[in-house]
Structures
1.
Amino acid sequence: SPCVRKDPTHAADTTGADHPRRRHHRAHAFRVYVSPLATHIGAMCGIFAYTNYNCPKTQKEIVTKLLTGLKRLEYRGYDSAGLAIEDGESYTECTSKVFRETGKIANLEALLEANAGNMHPDLVFESHCGVAHTRWATHGPPAPRNSHPHTSDKNNEFLVVHNGIITNHQALRETLIRKGYMFESDTDTEVIPKLTKYLFDKFHDQITFRQLVMEVLRQLQGAYALLFKSSHYPGELVAAKRGSPLLLGISEGPHPGEQHAIVTSEGFTPSTKRAKRTSMEFYFASDASAMVEHTKRVLHLEDDDVAHIHNGGYGIYRMERVHCEGDDSPSLAYGPTVQSAEVERTIETLTMEVEQIMKGNFDHFMQKEIHEQPDAVGQTMRGRVVFEDDGKTVQRVFLGGMADYLSTIRRSRRIILCGCGTSYHSAIAVRQLMEELTELPVTLELASDVLDRQCPFFRDDSIIFISQSGETADTLRAMEYAKSKGALCIGIVNVVGSAISRATDCGIHINAGAEIGVASTKAYTCQITAMVLLALALSEDSRSRAARRLDIMRGVALLPDYMRRALALDGQMLELARTLVNENSLLLFGRGYNYATALEGALKVKEVALLHSEGILAGEMKHGPLALVDETLPLVVVATRDSSYVKQKSVIEQLRARDARLILIVGEDDDSLDRFADKNMIIKVPEIVDCLQPLVNIIPLQLLSYHLTVLRGHNVDQPRNLAKSVTVE
C-alpha cells in the first residue's frame, strides 16, 4: 500500500505528533474514553466511486473506471460486487440503475454485458456520479439481494454503499418496518438508504443533501465508510467516515495549469486559496491502490468527517462529538448537524507508482512480492542506515522522527510488542534481539487477546503496534486501550495515513511498497528489519553492546544480497513442492530466532496452499508433537548455525531415530547434517548474523508455499475466506 510524503526529511519515521512527556502529563488530567473505533470495526469491503464535473465521459468510460477500481480492491477480499450508474435516452432523462452479482467481478461484468441492450454506452455525461462496491458477507449470505449498492425503494431514490458494521441496525429496521418500509436483504446496510428516504420525506426541501446525510448519521451506531447518491440531488455525492478507511482523490479535468483547489460544495469560497475550477474529477476509494492510476492527489478523511461533492466543488464537514455525562460506558451523540462547520484537510501526494499494483513479469502478486523483498528491505533501511565512505560499512542507525522518543523508550518499565498473524510473528522474531540490546523486559501480546484479558498496561510502558495495513481491527482496539492507560504507543506500519499511523505517538513506516497478495511476504521481512533498526537505535549508547551492535550492522549492510541468494532456491522449492503436493499435513520445527520462521512458514502454507501446517517450538517436541511423528508425515526443521544449533541437531537426531521424513533448512557450508535427509530434502541457505537469519530462512518457505498453492490449483493472491486487511472482529 502507498507511501505519502508531506515532509521529505523525516516523514517516513514519524506516525504521530504528540511528545510523550506532554501526553503523559495530560493523561491523568481527564478520562480517556475508547472511541467507537475500538468497539466496532468495519467489514472487509471495498468502496470505489467516480464523479465528473464539466468533464464529458461516456457511460462506457464511466463503467470501465468503476470496474477497474473494483479490480484494484479485489485483494481486500470479497464475495459479491455491484455498482450504480445513470442511464436513459438522453442526459436530461436519466434514472439510476443498479447491478449486483455474487462471485468475482468478472460475474458483474457478465451481468452488465447481458444488459447491454438496455443501456446506452455512448451516452455522454457532462457530470455524473457512479458508485461501486465489493462486499464481504457479514450480515446475510452472499446473494445479489445482499450486495451493494443498497436502495431506498424501487425507484432508487437513495443509493448507499457501505464498508463497516451498523450495530443498532435491528432497532432501526424494526422502527422503519412500523413506518411501512419493506426490506429485501438481510444486511445491516439496507436500513441506511431507507432511513435516508424517511428523513427526506420528513424534512423534504428544508436541508441540503449533506445536512440530510448528517441527520442519518446521527442515528447510526458502529463503524462505517459510506457513500450516498440520490436522484433528488443529481450530480451530488456525500461520503462519511467513522472507523473504516476512506480516501478522496482529486484530479484536474482537461484544463491543466490552474490552481488545484476549488470552491466548496455549497457554493462559497472560504478564502482566496481555493479558486474555481472549470472541470474536475473526484474519486472515493477504500485504498489508494484503486486511485493511483487516476490521481496522486488524495485527501484522507478522518473519523466523523463528511465530504460533499457538488458542482465541481468539495467540502469537508465535521460531526461534533458530545460526551454524555454520567455514563460509565459513554455513547456518542452529535450536536445539530446543520450548524457543522467546514474544516480543512491537507491534500497529500501519493509516492506509489502504478507499476507497484501491477504484476509485471510475474504470474501472481505473491510471487512478485516474494522476489521484491531484497529491494523492499533496502527501502526500509534507506535514509535510516548511515554508511561509512566505503558505502558498505554501517556507521550508525538514524530514525529521524523517532529521535525525540528514544530516551523515553529507554526509560520504560518494559517494551510490549503487539500484533496479529504475520505481524505477531515478526514480533517473535525480533523479541530476543530487542531484549539483548535494550536490556529491558520485552513481552509479546496478541492484539485480539489484549482487551479480552484487560491486559495491565501502565504509563511507563512502551507498546509497539505492528500492522501492514495500519487498519487491523484487533490491533486498533488494543492501541486505543493502551492510549487510555497512558502508555507510549509506537506504530510499525506500511500504509502511510492509516488509522494506526495517525493515532500512535510515533513510529516507523516500513516503506515496503504496495502489498497486494493476501499472504503477507515482504511486509514480514520489512517489519523485522524496521524493528532491528529500532533495537540498534535504542542501544546506541551502550558500550557493553558495541561489538555485538557492530556485528549486526555489518549484517544489515549485507542483508539484501543474502536475500537475493536465497531467492535462487526457487527451482529447488518447486521440485520440493511437487513431492508434497498431495500431503495432508506439514509440521515445522524452529527454535530461538527461528521459532518465528517455523510459525510464519506454517501460516503461509495453510493460508494459501490450504494444507494443514503447524509451526512448533522445537523445545516442546517431547511434550506432545512427537506422538505425530512417523515415516509418512513431512517435517521441516530449521537448523541454521546460531545459539540453538546444537539443540536443533539433537532434535533432528531424535526425529530421524523414529524414521521421520525430514526436510532440513541448514547453512550452505554446513555438511554435518547431510546424513539425516536426502540431498533434495536439504535446503541450504546463505548464513548471516543470527538475529537476521530469519529474514533469509523464511524465503524458501515462502517460495514453497507459493509453488504448493499453484500445483494444488488454488487462488494464490485471494485464498478462500481470507482478506488482506482484517478490519472486522
2.
Amino acid sequence: KNDIGTGDQVVKVLKNYVTKYRKRSSSWCSPLHTLNLSLNDLGIGNAALEIIAMLKNDALCLKSLDVSANGLTDGDGFLNVISSIGNNKRLVELNLSKNMFSTFFIDGLLNVISAGGSGTSQGLSFLHLNGNIPPLTKTQEESLSHILHTARKEQLKVHFQESKKPATVDEKEKISLGAAPTIEEESEYDNSSSNLFSGEKIAKTNDNDDALYPSFSQDSNNMGIGVELRPFGPHRSNSDGRLLTQHRRSALDNAIAPVDYSTEIALRKEKNRTPSKGNMITVLFSAPLVWRDQNNSYQPIEMLDFELERELLWQCFKEASMDIELSFDNATTDRLQATMTKCCGCLHFSGHGHPNYLTFEDFSGGLHWLGVDNLKNLISSGVKGGGAPFKFVFVSACHSGLAGRTFVSAGVPHVVCCHQESELMDSAALAFTRAFYLALAVGRTVKDSFEIGKQAVNVSPTVPNSEEEMKKFVLLPEDGNHDVPVFDAEPVCEWPRKSGAVGFSRRNLYQRSSGDGASLQDLSLPTPPQGFLGREIDMYHVLNAVLTKRFVSLVGPTGIGRGSLASALCHYISDRKSTMITIETIYYVRARQKRGNDGMASVINPFYKQLVAAGKAKNLPKGADMDDVFQSIFKALSKVKALVVFDRVEVLDGTEEAQEFPLFLSTLFRETRNVRVLMTACKPLGLSTLGGVGEHTLRLGPLNLKSTVRLFAILCPQVHTGEERRRLLELLVTDDTQARLCHDDEGITKRTRKILMFMGNGVPSRTFNAAYQTSKKEYEDFLNNVN
C-alpha cells in the first residue's frame, strides 16, 4: 500500500522500462517478473488499465501481476483489458481480487481464456477473483476452477517435456544480455534443467549492445546494488558448456575499478549532434473521418492501420541505427508547407488514394481534396529559389501515379508511387515499405532499394497474387538516375537519439518520442478497445462540437461505447496538436463507482490528483476542505487550453453530490477561459446554462450492419484469419443500403434484422459477448440459417 492513486508516474516508468529493455531481436531482456500494486486505490485513475494493456503481446513481460483491492471497475475500458489478457503468453498469475467487476466482465474474461486465450494454450495458470463485488456465481466459480486446472496440467506437461531437452545456446547466453541470474537460476544451470517459472529464454543480440549499456542488478555477495560492466564479445563457458557466472559475483570489484570516460563523452557528443537536412524524413499521415457526397451528406472514411505502418517505419530505422531523423505529422496543407520550410530532405505520404487528388485532412476531421494542380503550385512556391522541394518522395496510396508525376514535375529526382490505375493492397504496401526503407537507410541506392522492396512483396506469404502486386510500384522518373543513395548518414550507437524522432503517435503502447513535448496527462490517456470501428461520423460530430463548444455531453445507454469513442477522440486530437491549436492539454477522468458517502470524490479527486501529478496544482494536506480542492483546480486551469473528459458521470446519479457536480462545472467555466469539457453519461444534465455556458448534447446510437459484422468477425474465436473475416463480411453484407442501417431503422429487411439480433443489435458490449459466447456449432448453424 503506497497510495499510488492515479499512478501516472508509475505508468510512465513502466513504459520507459519496456522501451529500455526491448532489443533488436524478437525476444525480450526483462528482469522484472513480479509486480505487486495491491491496495493502492488505482481505481481513481487509469493506471491499472494502462498496465494491463501493456501485457498485450507480452510488451510488459511479467510472470505475476497483483492489482487486487484497488476499487477497479470495468466500464467502457473492459474490452481492452480482456483483449490484453487474451493476447499474452507469459503471465502465469493474475490477481484481480477484491475489486468491483461486473458479472458481464467476468463472463467475458472466462470466455476469452477458455476459448484458446491465456488459459489452456498459453501461460495463465493462477487467476484470483475472490472477494469481488458482486461475488462470482456458482457457474463462474466452477468454470474458473476447470479452466485453471486444465491450464496447470498443460503447464506441467510442457515443463516435463522441456526438462528432457538439452540446454540451448540461448539459455546459456542469457546473462550476456543483462538478466543476471539469481542463486536459484544458477542451480538450474548446474543441474542442466529449467524451472517452469524461471526467466525467459532470451535471444542474443549485437555484442555492441553489451558494451554500451551498464546494467544495475542485485548482487548476491554484497547484498546491495552492484554495477555490472559488461565486456565486449561473448562470455566464456567451462568445459561442459555451462555458463560461467563469476562476472556477476565480482560486480563490486568491477564497479570500483578505474573508469575510462572517453566512451561516455563520445556518446554525449553524438546525442548533441543534429542530423543534416538531407538525413531527415517526415511522414505525413492522412486520416480524415468523413467526406461529403453530392447530396452534402456525411459518408464515413474507414480508418487505415497507421499504427502498424508507424511501428514498421520506426523498426526499420531503429534496425538501421543510422543518424537519420524520423518525424510524424498529420497531412494538412500547412504541415506540408512547414515540412518544406524546414528543408526536410525526404517526404513519405500515406493515405487513401484517388485518381485525381491527394486526400489531405482539413483542420476538423474532414477530407480536403487536394488536386494535382494545387499540389504543384503548393510545392513549387514552397522552396526558396525554386529548387526541388525534396530529394525523395514516397506516395503510399492507391492511384497515386498522377500525384507522383506532379512531384517529379516540381523537380523531385526520386519518387516512389503506385500505378495510376491500380489499387494497392495494404499487405503489399507494408511488405514493400519495410524492405525498401531498411535498404535505403543503411545506404543502398534508390534503385537497389526499390528492387529489394519489390522482391519483398513477391516472396511475402501475406500478399495474394504477389507477382502482380509487386508490379504496381513505380519509380519515377523512368529515365532518371536512381543509382544513388538518398541518405548519407553515420552509424549511431543508439537510435533514436534524444531528438532523433518527433511526433510519434501517443496511441502507441510504447512512447517512442523523446522530444515531442508529450505531457504526462497525454501519456495516461486510455487506449481504445480492440475492434474500435464504425464510429467515424459520430467522432467527427463530437470532435467539431468539442472544437467549437465549451460543454459537450455524449449520452447513450451503458455498453454503447461512449467511453471508447471519447478515448479514441482524445488520441485523435492529441496526434493533431500542431493543427488543433485550441486544445493543448487533455485530462481524462473516468469516474469510479460510489463507495459509501464518497460519491463526489469519484469525479473530483481523480481530476485533482492528475493535476498534482502533472505539477499543475499544489498537493494539499490529506482531508483538505473540498472548496480548497476546487480553488486549486480552478487556479491550475485558469490559463490553460485544455480538454477535460469526465467519463461515466452516471455513477453520481441518486446521490446528494449529483447536485454539486453542475455547480462545480459552472464555477469551472466562470473561472477559466479556455477549458472545454466532454462528459459521457446515460443522460444529459438538462440545465439551460452553466456559468454562462450551454450544454450541447449528442446521442450515441448502435452500430450499423456492416460495422457490427466487422466487429463480430474481429472478436469471434470461430473466425481465425483475415481472409475468413473478409468472406464473412461478403456473405452477410450483400446490399450497400442495408449495410448502413441499424436494427431500429426503417427499411431494414428480416434477414438484416436476424443478423443484427444474433450479433447484439449493434451494441458493442453485446456484440462482444455474443462473439465470445458463440460455439462452433452455433456459429455454423447461424450461417446456414441466415442464408
3.
Amino acid sequence: MCSAKNQRLRHRRSNGNIPIEPESRYGRDNMSIRDLPEELDDEGYKEKHRRFVMSPQNSWLRYYDDKLAKGGNKAVKAVFFFACFFLAYLLVQSAHQSDCSYQSGCKNRSSVTDFTYGTILAGRNSDKAYTNLDRISFKSVEKSRDSNIKGLRVCIFTAEFAGIFPSGGIGYVLSELAQLLASEKAQVTIAYLGSGKLHETTTKDLENKGVSFVKLPEPDIPIAPGHVSLVGSYKALLYLMNEENQFDIVHFNDYLGHAIYPLYAKRQGWLLDKTKVVVTLHGTTMWSRLANKQLPHTIDDISVSWIEREAISTADVVWAPSKFIATSLLSEGVELPENVVVLKNAPPTLEHISNKHRELYGRRIEKSTSVINEIVFFGRLEMRKGPLLLIEALEQLSKKHRSMMKHIKVSFLGRDTPVDEWNPSYKEKIRQDFLSSKNLKNVNLSFLDNFDRDQAISYISDPHRLIVIPSLTENLPGTVYESIEFGANFIAADVGGIKEMIHPDDADRCLFKPLPLSLASKLHEKIVETHKDIKPVRHSETPASIRSDIIAFHKQIHQQSSQNSFRRRKSNPKITVCMTHYNRPKGLLTTLKEWKKQTYSNYEVIVVDDESPEEAQKELDETVVPFIHKSGWKLLKV
C-alpha cells in the first residue's frame, strides 16, 4: 500500500501545486531507475525494471545501458564499448568482403547498392541455390537403341547466330545444335529473326551440311514498332502460319521471348497442333540485368521480362542446360512448366579448328620452370563476367609478388560492351583501372575484342597462356566448354553451372571461389606450376555422350503423341465473347444471330449496352433481349 505521505504528494501534483518535471526514458531528467527515490517508487518500478532487462527475451544491451548510466565502473564501461566497436568493425569488414567478392570495384562503390548486389550473387552461387530442385519436375532422357531422327523436321528460331556476330554464346550453341541434328539426317532450318546478314560462304557451308538458313522478312503491318520481343515473335508466327513450313519440333530461346505468339496460337488451337515447342534456358534479360547490376530503364524492358516468363511457362518442353539455371529462375519468380529436361548444350567439335590452331593443339609444352608468360581474361567485357574481379586479384598478386608480374602480359579476350548509358566502353574502364593502380600501371596490357571464334580458340590453346574465366554467375558458358575441349590451361570461378561441366576429380585444380584473394592464390599456384604438373581438365560427361543424349531427346519428344504430350491442354475450353452496344439494336440482333451459327458450342456472349436512347432501349427490350435470354447469354445495361 502507498504511504500517506506519498498519497499527499501525488494529490498535490494532480492539483498542479507542484509542477511535473519532464522525465527521461528511465526517470526524471537524466536519472536512472536504479536512482529513483523510495518515496516515488510506490509501485515497485525498480524491481519491475530489473526483471525486465534481465529476462532472456529482452536485449542484453538494455541491462548494461542502465547499469552504466551513472557512476558505473569506468573499466567495465571501456571494455563494453570496445567490444561493441570491435563487433561493428567485424560486421563492416564482412559486408566489405562480400561486396568485393562479387563486385570487385571496392575502391569506387556505393556500399548499400553493391552490398545488395553482392548478396544477390552470393545467393545465386551458394549451395542454397539448389534447394528448389524438389519443386521442379525434371524429365530424364530415355535412351534407346533406335535413336534414328532421319527426316525429323526441326526449325530453330533465333536472333543470334554464329557468323553474323564475331562472338555470342547463344549463336554458337545453336550453330552446334543445328549441325549435330543435320549430321543425323534431320531436316534442319534456321529461321533468323534478327537484322544482320550471314555471309554467302557460310550459308553455302551450312547447306552442304544439311542446314537451311532463312532470314525472315519484316512484317507488312507495324507490330509494336521497335519492340525487340514482339516484332521477332510476329515474324515467327507469320512463318509458321505458312502451310509449307510444317515442323515436328521448333526451338526458341528464353531470351527475348520470341515464342510468345506461336505459343498463344497453339494454346488457342489453331497452330502447331502436332508440333512440339521447346524453349531453351540461356538466361532471361532480367536474369542478365541483375548479374550486371542493372535495372529496367523503360516500359519495354519490363514488358520483355514478362513476355520471357510467359513464353517459358507455356512451352511444351523447357530445355535447361544446367540445373542451376532452372533453380535460379524459379527462385526469381519464373514459373516453369510440367516438363523440364536438364541436358547440356551441344559441345563444340574439332571441325571448327583452323590449321594454325591444329599445330598449336598438338604441340607439347616446352620444359621450363615457369610455362606461363600471359594471363588471358576469356569472356565478354561486362560486369557479370568478372573483369573487375580479375583486376583486384592481379593487384593482390602484384603486392605479394611484385617481380612475378613484371614478365607477365595481361590480355582481355572478348567483345567490348557498354558499362552504362554514360560509359560506352568497358574496355576503357578496364584500361583506366590499370592506369590508376600503383601496382598495375606498368603491366603490359592488351585487348583482343575483334577475334572470331576460330581465332579465339587458337589463342587460348597456347600452353604458355593461362586462361581465366572469373564469372560472377553463369549458366553453362561456352568459354569453359571450349577451354576443356581444346586443351587450354585454364581456371574458372566456381559459380552457377560451371561446376556441372567439369569432372569432379579435376574441380579443385581449376576452380576458385569468386573472391580476389582466392583468385590471386590460384593465379600464383598456376604461374609457378611446371610442365609436369599440368594435366588437361576433363568434361563431367564426354562430348560423345552429350551428343547422344541430344539426339535421343529429340527422338523422345517427337514420339510423344498429342494425347501424351508434355503439357496437356483442355480440348474444349469455354470462350467468352464480350460486345459493347450503343443505339444499334437491329445491327446487334444480326450479329448475335451470326454468332448463333458457330459450330463451336462451348461459348457464351455478354452484351454491354452503353446507355442507348429510350427508343433504342424499347426496341432492344422487344427484339434483342428475348433472343439473348433464349440463347442463355447475358445483357448488361450501364
4.
Amino acid sequence: MAASMRLSRAVTLLLRRSDNFRRIPQSSTFTLLLKNPALNTDHYLNRFVCTTSLVRNEQQSSAKTAPERREFQAETRMLLDIVAKSLYSEKEVFVRELISNASDALEKFRYLSLTGTNLENSQRPLEIKITADKEAKTLTIEDGGIGMNKEEIINNLGTIARSGSKAYIEQLKSKGGAPDSVSNIIGQFGVGFYSAFMVADKVDVFTKSSLPGSVGLHWSSDGTGTYELSEDETAELGTKIIIHLKSDCTNFSQEDTIKDIIQRYSNFVGSPVSVNGTVVNTVQPLWLMDPKEVTAVQHDEFYRFISDSYDRPRFVLHYKTDVPLNVRALIYFPEGKPGLFEMSRESDAGLALYCRRILIKNKAVDLLPKWLRFCKGVVDSEDIPLNLSRELLQEGALIRKLRTVLTNRILRFLHDKSQKAKEEYERFYRDYGIFLKEGILSSNEQLEKEEISKLLRYESSLLPPGEKVSIAEYCNRMRPGQRDIYYLAAPSRELAESSAYFEALKKRDVEVLFCFEPYDELVLLQLREFDRKHLTSVEKEMRQDSSADQSTDSETGTAGLDSKATEDLITWLSATLSGRASKVKVTRKLESHPCVVTVEEMGAARHFVRTQSQSVPEEQRYKLLQPQLEINPKHPIITKMHKLKDENPGLATLLAKQLFANAMVSAGLLDDARPVVANMNELLTLALEKC
C-alpha cells in the first residue's frame, strides 16, 4: 500500500504537465491508475526513479534562486539611452563615477560603524579594489562598503536618476547627523552607475548588505531597459561590479589606462584605491588638511602634480570658509615667469574643480576671471551647482558669487603680501603686473577695479628712479586741496622728466606718477578714479586749467610778446595750420618749451593713433583728434616767428608747421615721422640760405 501511494505521487508529478491530468481532480489520481487499464502502470513505475531524482535536484538548486526579470522604473528606455550614450562627453568618466559610488558605500559603512550600528565584519579593510583583465576584456570594481539589500538594489539600480547617496544624506540630516559625517558623500544625481553602459555590453553586480541577516544578491543587465535579479550566496559583503567591455572599449581593460584615469579624476578619494594589487591614489588632498600641518615640501610636490610644472610656488594661499559659501581652496602663484600660454587670453587655464575630493573639471575657467589665469590650484566646494553629468558648471548667481569670493580673497592675499613682504611682491609684480592691469581693463565693476589698483606700482616724480609707489601711498602724500591723481605716460623716465606737459606741475611741486608701458595710461583711463579722487593725465590738466593762462602784459615783460602781438600771431597760426590744429591759444605754463599740443583724452587718442590711424586719411584723422596748439609767447622761437611772418612768410610757414609737427610727435600723436623729417630738411635749407 505504501508503495502504491508513492507511485501515485510520482505519477501525479508526471501528469501535472499533461492536459488530461489538469482536467482530472488530483484526489482521483490513484483511482485512475486502478480502474483505467489503458494506463501502463509499469511504464510509470520505471519513470518514478527519474521523477524523484528531478525533485531532489530542484530542492538542492534552491540555494541560488531563478533570476527575476524586471523593468527599469524610469519613464522610458530612452532615458537609459541618454544616460549611457549622450550624457557624458568622455567615456572614461565612468571610472570616476563608479569609484565615487564605491567611496560613498565605504563612507556610509564608516559612519554606521562609528555610530554603533551592528554590522557584519565591521573590522574589515575599507578599500576599493579594481581588477583590469585584458584577456577576459572585463573591468571589476569592488568595495568593502555597506552593500545593498533587495529593496535597496531595486531602488538604487532599478530606478534611473534616483540617488541612494542623496537619500542617505537627507536621512542623516533629518536625524540631526553631524555635517562632517556627510561631507565625504559624493553622489548627487543617481545616474553615475549607468555611465558603465557607455563601455559595457553587460554589467553584473554582486552585493550583500552589511546589516545582519542579509542575503547576497546578483543584479545583471545589458542596459536595454530590463535587468535580472536573483539571490546569490557567493556574493560577499560590499559590492562588486563586473563590466564586460564592448569590443571598441577594450582599452579600459588595460591596467595603465585605468591608473591614469584614477590619477586624474579620483586621486583624492578618502579610501585606498588599488589596481591589480597596486595602490594608485598616493597623493594627499592638501586642501582638506590644516594649513599649519602642510610642509613646504608637500606644497612643492602637490603644485607640480596639479600644474604639470617644474618650478615651485612663489606664494601659497590655503584657506577654507563656510560663509557665504562652503569653499576649500589651495591656490598657488608660480615662481617662474609667465610663458606664451599664460599670456594668451584664449588659453585653457583655470583652477581644478573638485567636489568632495572627486575631480569635476580639470580647468574650470568659470571659477576665476580671465586675468587671474596664471593662478594654479584646487577649489573644492559642496555648494557648486553642477549639471547632471558632473562635468560642467551651471552658470548662475551662485557661480558668480563663488567667483567673487575667490577673486576677493586672492586680491586681499596679494595686498597683504605687498605690505608685509615688499621685496617678494615687487618681484611678483615685475613678472605678473600685466595681468593685474588686464583685470582693470576687463572688469565692469568699479569697486573691483579699485581693489585691483591697490596692487599697481608706478615710479613717482618725487622718488628716485627705480623706486615705485602705490596709488594709495600717492594719495596719502597729496597736498591739501588737491583732488586729482596726476600721471604722465612716456617711454622712459628721462623723456617724462623733460616733457613739456610735466613742466607746469614740476614748477608747482606736484607729484606725478610716471607710466612707462604703452598700456598703462589706458589702464588708468579705465580706472577713472581711486578713493573718490580722479585720475587725470597731465596733458588733460594742462588743457582744462585755463586759469594759469590768464596773464597781463606786465607779466609777459620785455622778453615775450605782448597781448596784441600774441593775438596777431594766434590769428596767423590758425590760418596757417587750418585743417590740422582745431584751435590755437596761449599758455603761461611753459618756460623751456615753445608749444605743446593737447587733446581732450590724450590716452585714448594715442591708442587710436597706434591701432587705427593708418586706416584713416590724414584730414579725417585731424578732425577726429581735434588737436589744440598752445604756444608760449615768452619763448624765443615764438617771438622770432612773429617777426618772420611779416619779414619772410615762407620761412615762417615752414617754422609753424615744424613746431606743430614737433608737438604732435612729443604728444605721441604721429605714427609716421617721415613727413616731419622732410619738412625739417626744407626748413634747414631756407635757414642756411641766410648764412
